[in-house]
């Protein structure tokens, strides 16, 4: 049951429409299950957190938070070097995103924008097999650069203790505390605040369906800000006949490795490349059988190779797909990239696999999925900045512009108070 190779054009909707459905995890069941948990944390605070941690994690906690500065870690030098290199690159990239407040004179008045950071952030880090320390860097570094003053890490407790790598990262990133509560109850603690856990205004980071459901529900209630709604991991690759089929197959499988609901779409004009990539995928399944069933389901059921008549058709489809990750492996990558309108993060050239952005190059790997890049961007410094507009109107400008305000307020039926609030400041009332 190899990956399907589909010959398409822009009118072949019956062939490609299912890939444009914007796969998003159905959180209905998870939301129904987490609502009682959220309410109990809201009303009972720490007591609910202790109870749910014992129930779901099998751990009876003595306290809910730890100060990372008080814990000794023993991280090997090579691991430190890797994460410090990643930290340096991520900081350099995100430092370039800094915003400066500004003012401008418009029609005689002083107008401007003042940027202020969100006051607090919680970063969720899953535990167990789904340990993603790289996501801690991705969530915290842009927030620190934005100037967020209070940051805490939320992570489920482990029977063997909080992983040392998370503690060490919390130390080098200089965050306030680690909250040893996971799942929906950990999200609720950050959103509502409890006796031990300060409330956070924003929360980011990956998690299971219950974490996602809690974040989505609480965001909908206006209680927290969140990163863009998440769905399964995805990659789209635009490649021509000169691309390396083995490398493309590896890149497709790197997304399939995330889960059986992941997707990998290859767009090409070259039928020969399509067949060679399909063959390389089958070879890889034999040579690298780890998580085989999961990878095969992702590739066979959610992925495809689409062969279009022209490179412009490939670009068109990519823009329709608005993928989380987009790789471009063609003889003129910049020309193709210039026509890309929607993508979470783009990887140009044969030596730019998604894994580089996942870990070390410096761009952020917290990205919109499920066609979300049409309206959302990758996590960055802007995520944690609020734009406050201001104006200082001069007496002369108020006098000059009042007739227009009078007309417009009358047109909208708001002249009695809106119009009057300007009129009383003019010569007409003096």
UniProtKB/TrEMBL annotation:
Catalytic activities: L-histidinol + 2 NAD(+) + H2O = L-histidine + 2 NADH + 3 H(+)
Metabolic or biological pathway: Amino-acid biosynthesis; L-histidine biosynthesis; L-histidine from 5-phospho-alpha-D-ribose 1-diphosphate: step 9/9
Residues holding NAD(+): 124, 185, 208
Co-factor remark: Binds 1 zinc ion per subunit.
Gene3D superfamilies on file: 1.20.5.1300, Nitrogenase molybdenum iron protein domain
PROSITE patterns, per database record: HISOL_DEHYDROGENASE
SUPFAM superfamilies xref list: ALDH-like
Chain positions recorded as Zn(2+) binding sites: 255, 258, 358, 418
CDD domains: Histidinol_dh
A Pfam family this chain is assigned to: Histidinol_dh
GO BP terms: L-histidine biosynthetic process
UniProt keyword annotation of NAD present: yes
Active site, per annotation: 324-325
Alphabetized GO MF terms: histidinol dehydrogenase activity; NAD binding; zinc ion binding
Cofactor(s) the protein needs: Zn(2+)
Record-listed substrate binding positions: 233, 255, 258, 325, 358, 412, 418
Organism domain of life: Bacteria
Gene Ontology annotations for the cellular component aspect, listed alphabetically: cytosol
E.C. number: 1.1.1.23
Swiss-Prot/TrEMBL keywords: Amino-acid biosynthesis, Histidine biosynthesis, Metal-binding, NAD, Oxidoreductase, Zinc
Function according to Swiss-Prot or TrEMBL: Catalyzes the sequential NAD-dependent oxidations of L-histidinol to L-histidinaldehyde and then to L-histidine.
PANTHER family with a match to the protein in the record: HISTIDINE BIOSYNTHESIS TRIFUNCTIONAL PROTEIN (PTHR21256:SF2), HISTIDINOL DEHYDROGENASE HDH (PTHR21256)
Family: Belongs to the histidinol dehydrogenase family.
Protein name: Histidinol dehydrogenase
């Amino acid at each position: 049951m190899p990956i399907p190779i589909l010959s398409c054009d822009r009118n072949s909707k019956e062939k490609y429409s299912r890939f444009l459905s914007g796969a998003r995890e159905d959180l209905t069941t998870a939301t129904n299950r987490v609502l009682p948990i959220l309410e109990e944390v809201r009303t009972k605070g720490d007591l609910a957190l202790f109870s749910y941690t014992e129930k779901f994690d099998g751990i009876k906690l003595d306290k809910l938070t730890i100060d990372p500065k008080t814990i000794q870690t023993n991280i090997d030098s090579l691991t430190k070097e890797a994460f410090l290199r990643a930290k340096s690159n991520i900081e350099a990239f995100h430092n370039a995103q800094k915003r400066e407040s500004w003012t401008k004179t418009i029609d005689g008045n002083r107008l401007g924008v003042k940027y202020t950071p969100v006051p607090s952030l919680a970063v969720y880090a899953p535990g167990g097999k789904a340990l993603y320390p790289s996501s801690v860097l991705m969530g915290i570094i842009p927030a620190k650069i934005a100037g967020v003053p209070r940051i805490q890490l939320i992570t489920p407790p482990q029977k063997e203790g909080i992983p040392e790598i998370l503690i060490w990262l919390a130390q080098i990133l200089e965050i306030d505390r680690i909250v040893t509560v996971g799942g929906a109850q950990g999200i609720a603690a950050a959103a509502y605040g409890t006796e031990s856990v300060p409330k956070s205004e924003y929360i980011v980071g990956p998690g299971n369906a219950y974490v996602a459901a809690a974040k989505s529900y609480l965001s909908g209630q206006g209680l927290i800000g969140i990163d863009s709604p998440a769905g399964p991991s995805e990659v789209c690759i635009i490649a021509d006949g000169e691309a390396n089929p083995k490398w493309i197959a590896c890149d497709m499988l790197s997304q399939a490795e995330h889960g059986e609901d992941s997707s990998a779409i290859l767009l090409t004009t070259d039928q020969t490349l399509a067949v060679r990539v399909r063959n390389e995928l089958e070879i890889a399944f034999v040579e690298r059988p780890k998580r085989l069933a999961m990878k095969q389901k992702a590739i066979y059921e959610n992925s495809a190779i689409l062969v279009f008549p022209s490179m412009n058709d490939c670009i068109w489809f990519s823009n329709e797909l608005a993928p989380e990750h987009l790789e471009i492996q063609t003889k003129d990558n910049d020309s193709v990239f210039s026509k890309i309108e929607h993508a979470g993060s783009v990887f140009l050239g044969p030596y730019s696999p998604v894994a580089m952005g996942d870990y070390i190059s410096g761009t952020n790997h917290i990205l919109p999925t499920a066609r979300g890049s049409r309206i959302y961007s990758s996590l960055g410094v802007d995520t944690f900045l609020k734009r406050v507009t201001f104006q200082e109107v001069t007496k002369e400008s108020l006098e000059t512009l009042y007739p227009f305000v009078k007309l417009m307020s009358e047109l909208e039926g708001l002249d009695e108070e809106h119009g009057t609030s300007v009129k009383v400041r003019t010569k007409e009332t003096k």
